[in-house]
Design brief:
Blueprint lengths: L2 E5 L5 E6 L10 H15 L58 H17 L3 E4 L9 H10 L6 E5 L6 H7 L5 E5 L5 H6 L2 E5 H12 L29 H8 L1
Parallel strand pairs: 1-3, 3-6, 4-5, 4-6
Antiparallel strand pairs: 1-2
Helix pairs in contact: 1-2, 3-4
Length: about 250
């Protein structure tokens, strides 16, 4: 079982945390691509719109008679063949969101965590103990943790930390999300990820329960010896059946 160091905001090591092998194992890149594609599709506004024939301004009167003029026949000035006319089969407002299986999303989240841990971009702090809502002291704390690029802060669910929000909102390239709202897109979008101890502990417990029995390690689940033995049905011989009939 792999372990990761727990630091405080001063960059000092204060403990270790055990990582589950079911979560921080192989990385499924195909599943990550699908999860990111689904997330970005939901971000699209889908407000594109072109005017159909009945929406274009202009008279519907026939411009000239059908025959005898030598010109091409025309029925309306709003024809899509003409300039400033309608658009045929143009885009209409719609939602690009689609359903994505929950198990695939959970698998992608496990792969994203494993990728960050393998790259050495996963940091765990004991708590985001920000005493005052000021940006400069919190910026020093990030430097102490050796964070020099974009960073994602993951706080525990239902953990109100107003000082953290006020201290971090003016830092460019920094985003704060809750542990129950983190998505593989968030983890891959930022170069470094900082979890609080409570956030990664709760997230690991919830994701560990979603792992299928085939993916679990031998020591993590129920052993085969713990299963109840099945009793085989006893077959009666011909002599016993004849005795019962008699």
């Amino acid at each position: 079982m792999a372990t990761i160091d727990i630091h405080n905001l001063n960059g000092e090591k204060v403990g270790t945390f055990d990582l589950a092998d079911e979560l921080f194992g192989a990385v499924n890149e195909d599943l990550l691509w699908e999860a990111v594609k689904h997330y970005r599709a939901g971000l699209r506004a889908g407000t594109h719109k072109t005017k159909a024939r009945w929406e274009v301004s202009g008279s519907g009167k026939k411009l000239w008679k059908q025959k005898g003029t030598g010109r091409a026949r025309i029925g309306s000035i709003r024809s899509p063949l003409w300039r400033h006319g309608a658009t045929v089969h143009g885009p209409v407002p719609r939602s690009y969101d689609y359903t994505f299986p929950r198990k695939k999303l959970q698998g992608a989240l496990r792969s994203a965590l494993a990728a960050k841990f393998a790259d050495g971009k996963l940091i765990v702090v004991n708590a985001f103990d920000v005493k005052e809502p000021k940006t400069k002291p919190f910026q020093k704390a990030l430097h102490a943790l050796r964070v020099n690029s974009t960073v994602l802060l993951v706080e525990a669910p239902r953990q109100e930390n107003r000082n953290l929000e006020l201290s971090a909102r003016n830092i460019d390239g920094l985003e704060i999300v809750r542990g129950n709202e983190v998505h593989p897109y968030h983890l891959l979008r930022h170069d470094c990820v900082i979890f609080s101890h409570a956030a990664i502990e709760k997230l690991q417990l919830s994701l560990k329960n979603t792992v299928s029995k085939k993916q679990r390690k031998p020591g993590s689940g129920e052993s085969e010896g713990a299963k109840k033995p099945t009793q085989e049905r006893r077959r009666r011989g011909r002599t016993e059946k004849a005795a019962e009939v008699a």
